[in-house]
Design goal:
- With 148 residues, the protein is of the alpha+beta class.
- The protein folds into two domains: 2-69, Ribosomal protein L9, N-terminal domain (Ribosomal Protein L9, domain 1, 3-Layer(aba) Sandwich); 74-146, Ribosomal Protein L9, domain 2 (Roll).
- 36% of the residues lie in helices and 32% in strands.
- The protein is built from three helices and nine strands; from the N terminus they run ββαβαββαββββ.
- It has helices at residues 23-33, 41-72, 95-104; strands spanning 2-5, 18-20, 36-38, 76-81, 88-93, 114-115, 120-122, 124-133, 136-146.
- The longest helix is centred in the middle third of the chain and has 32 residues, at 41-72.
Length: 148
């Protein structure tokens, strides 16, 4: 099924592209979430007319994400977790815990935007990627210390 993407999707394509996806994925996810529309000649024409509005909204979202990235630039977060004698954690650090620590510092970030890439399972400093926007990626340092 051919659809027009209304927003950037990591493994599908960028906004405005016409891509071929499986019918179930389009019908059950992309269309209800408002992430795509069916690629008919009428929808293609309508999308081209709305492109300016979408571009302005996209630029505003990018500017807001850049502002948050500037706030995250120098932030270090320290989390206390139980650990073994060999410095491995019982469990791991979750994106939710990092989001709560950022919220305590006054920065609101959705936990789904935090990319732990394999997880944090040891003590020490770890660099965590935060995907604020498709074009704006910030990094912050998370220090995991042993809980006493």
């Amino acid at each position: 099924m051919k659809v027009i993407l209304l927003s950037d999707l990591r493994h599908q394509g960028r906004r405005g592209e016409v891509v071929e996806v499986k019918p179930g994925f389009a019908r059950n996810f992309l269309l209800p979430q408002g992430l795509a529309m069916v690629a008919t000649p009428g929808n293609l024409k309508r999308f081209e007319q709305e492109r300016k509005k979408i571009d302005l909204r996209h630029a505003a979202e990018r500017a807001a994400a850049a502002e948050v990235a500037a706030q995250l630039a120098g932030i270090k977060i320290s989390l206390a977790k139980r650990a073994t004698e060999s410095n491995t954690l019982y469990g791991s650090v979750t994106a939710g815990e990092i989001a709560e620590a950022l919220e305590a510092k006054g920065i609101e970030i959705d936990r789904r935007r935090i990319d732990l890439a394999g997880g944090i399972k040891t003590l020490g400093d770890h660099v965590v990627r935060v995907d604020l926007h498709s074009e704006v990626i910030a990094e912050l340092t998370v220090t995991v210390v042993a809980a006493t």
